[in-house]
Amino acid sequence: MFIMIPVYIVNALYLWPITLWTYLMYGRPPKPKEGESARPQRAHHPPHAGAGGEEAGEPHNTTGGDTGRDESSSTLNTSDANAERGKPGEEDKHGHGGGDHMPDSSAREGGRPMFATITIGVCHCGAGCVLGDIVGEWLVCGTNALIGSPGRLLWAEFLVDFAFAFAFGIIFQYFSIAPMTGKHGPQIIVRALKADALSLLFFEIGLFGWMAAFQVGIFDWRLEMNTVTYWWMMQLGMFIGHWTGVPINWWLIKNRIKEPCA
Predict the structure, then answer these.
(1) Rg (CA), the chain
(2) CB under 8 Å to 136, separation ≥6 — which residues?
């Protein structure tokens, strides 16, 4: 989906080796195999062996006397397919009803490992956090918003960064859910909030914890925001935030609160 293009680009700013690996392995659509374009046609026109002895794959005569044979063959194939899926009300070995069977995350994602699914899930809130931190940091610095006595930029940064990160994160999640469901509007906004609120919170816990650690413990409040060192420290904080966001994303996806994204 289109929204993943900026998601991968933004996350590459701080998570580039993992982002590159995830994109190359699971972020690109698979290359079509040779002759794959002809498969849908063959699927819609299955081969038949008519009474007249026509070869397999040739069109059968729908006006002749083979109609009953074709219909019975189609009915038989449909019955076989239904038998494989399981009858409604029956339970498979995983305890799911045959008619309402819901595959696990790896099955829904075509066998993609859970690690990759979680990484992509964290990248959604990661993209929002990165953009929110960039906008929020420069806004606080430009307005010299101080909180506390003596006045500190850090406390204002926490508030403003989180507000912008939350807004951007919900936007990324919204445009991930909407294409999958084919729906738009307030209902999808609520779903985006449920899917990304905890994820964003845990990401920012890791980032904000590191921001406090390097500002207070390492540089004793002397590191200015408009320096290369500051933003290198912010990159480390975002990397830490990614990993504090992994457990909650695993829980959200495992419990189907957050849908696996492409």
Answers:
(1) 26
(2) 157, 160, 161, 162, 163, 164, 165
The residues facing 152 across adjacent strands are: 147
Q: pTM value?
A: 0.65
What span, in angstroms and rounded, lies between the C-alpha atoms of 123 and 39? 35
- Output the six-digit token pair for 161: 């960064």
Q: 249 with 198: CB under 8 angstroms? A: no
CA–CA separation, 192 and 174 (whole Å): 5
DSSP string, 161-207: HHHHHHHHHHHHHHHHHHHHHT--SHHHHHHHHHHHHHHHHHHHHHH
Place of tokens 């809130």: 125
Q: How many residues does the chain have?
A: 262
The answer to whether the CB of 72 falls within 8 A of the CB of 63 is: no
134-151 residue pLDDT tens: 999 999 989 988 887 777
Peptide bond into 29 cis (omega under 30): no
Domain residue ranges in the chain: 117-254
163 in Cβ contact with 47 (< 8 Å): no
- Alpha carbon 243 to chain centroid distance? 16
Query: Rounded distance, CA 259 to CA 121, Å?
Result: 8
Please report, as a single letter, which amino acid is at residue 107: A
Q: What tens digit of pLDDT does each residue of 93-145 get? A: 344 443 333 334 343 445 788 888 899 889 888 899 999 999 999 999 899 88
Coil/strand/helix, residue 19: helix
Residue 31 and residue 41 in contact, taking contact as beta carbons nearer than 8 Å: no
